[in-house]
């Protein structure tokens, strides 16, 4: 039980870090986020393999939710990651949880501009808490709004559109809105024709879906900058953080997101990083520098300093304190 | 001197090849070079102190509009070029761009122009009745720094290391996933020699954390990974060095396994010994010496602050576990040094196997003061001056240290302060 709590705590912290990394100056640090994702994965494995009775954890709305029992849950190998076939059915409490209303109000004006990937790990986090069922389909659900947003920059109305879709989608086993495929910018607008669930042999419906999807769906179209996440733990942050990488990367994203793998975090960071996704040719990888910007012009003359007069400082023989 | 938002936090420290110059880079993109004063009879007490020689702005913050990314101006690394003429040259790099700077001295100026007067204004030609040859007259020393090359657009990811080759013509720069080889005179192209980016970023499991050329063999270089392994590569074996010549890896101790095992095994720095026979690596809790001839395990492992092993979760929470400490050899490769928390730094004598913990603080830096060894007490018997683990200040971290190439002079960067100690190493060991 202790391990489970500890693991849960570590998961929360990790997700918070991934989330915060988006706003750090200098862009996302690939190394740090890779390490955080490894910790996340370890914690999740421990969490899922610890055969304790389900914990009651209060959600942000104050609704106590029962976590699914996970006996005999096949431990996800490192390669398999999070997108495993769904576990046994989850208590209905999940289904009735409504997505947070405040999320729909968040503008996503910045979404198209911000090339930084956000916190896809949050999905992973949700998956941890809510069992794995949502992980797979929930990931895929993300693709709808994500791709829609990728196609057209800025779909401010999308955020609010998503929610109605999400609520309705509760009953559908893969969470796709029953007929909402054509809604622009909404959940269902996934270019992939077939039901995403078909790809995964998920037998059971993901009843966790609605709450997750609420988080997920909202996340799909929201802009990261406007995330209020007022009372929520990092786990509950809206999936609008799941940022849309540059269009070149979106295509690559599609299949990667499918498995709901923790490594998806990397793919999002990676593609956001590389931007243009230059694929190196097989032979000599001589990279021409001048592709987009010419070599930087030599900067104007720098500061020339006279030898500064520090001689009035105490000449410490053992230490000099500069700056 | 406080800075705006910590822009004067030192981010790299490097002696030049003779030890005469010491360069520091900071978070604000500035480089400050110190020069050692020659010892003289006039100032018997200042045995070759370091004074500020030059200060310049190396990098400015930039914005990549395509990716909506701000590029930090923080200087990640400085490497000196071997001196080939009167001028000094160094490479400085931030996350994306490497620059070659030339530092020259001017201590003479021409006087006695025919057409210009003292202020440089054109003379009235009618007043010129004879011609004179301008002569060079001494002037106050002026240090001039100019950017000679800018190596831009070579890296998609964040540059973590640069290393000048012993051939003095090429250098390499490494980011999280790739290593590029540059010629010092050519800025518009570079050769990619290592690329560990997987075809599917989802499969990414490790990144490059540091890299360095061998000090003598211009074809060899090493790079370390976040998984704790070192790869020695031979550029003569293949144009692309994705396949290593040697892989140095120590099997993980299963009894020490925790959530954070992977993080603490990530190598934050790798340095060849001066002899070229050994490599020194730093991970979160240890420094290790590797023999190039033995790949299976390090030949020596030193615990830097093992008392933190039980605190990894808190250190993860406050991000300290991601701190990247550097390590350094002394000139004879007999002592290794690395930083720790609470402004402590550690030295390990490889021969005597003794180690010492010292503190870089203003109190300990009075003139001619001898540094007092410190001790961290992790429970058990506590001596009077011991510091308990729980009272360590984790905001005071010594990430960057440098050792003079020949003498026992060390430069310690403690946040925004630089300490230079002329340490009598042998007498300080426990």
Written account of the structure:
The complex is a heterodimer of chains A (323) and B (430). Chain A has 10 helices and 4 strands; from the N terminus they run H-H-E-E-H-H-H-H-H-H-H-H-E-E. A two-stranded antiparallel sheet of chain A has the order 1-2. Chain A is mainly α and 323 residues long. At the A-B interface, helix 1, helix 2, helix 10, strand 3 and strand 4 of A face strand 4, strand 6, strand 10, strand 14 and helix 2 of B.
Relevant terms:
heterodimer; A: 323 residues; mainly alpha; two-stranded antiparallel sheet; 10 helices; 4 strands; 38% helix; B: 430 residues; mainly beta; 3 helices; 31 strands; 40% strand; globular
Rg calc of chain A: 23 Å
Mean pLDDT, all residues of chain A: 46
Order of strands across the widest beta sheet of chain B? 1-2-3-4
Percentage of residues in helical conformation of chain A: 25-40%
Task: Give the overall average pLDDT of chain B.
Answer: 91
State the assembly state of the protein chains: heterodimer
The main pleated sheet of chain A reads as: 2 strands, antiparallel
Topology as H/E string of chain A?
A: HHEEHHHHHHHHEE
What's a concise summary of this model?
Chain A has helices spanning 2-21, 30-49, 93-96, 101-104, 121-130, 135-151, 158-169, 209-221, 247-258, 263-274; strands spanning 56-58, 64-66, 286-288, 305-306.
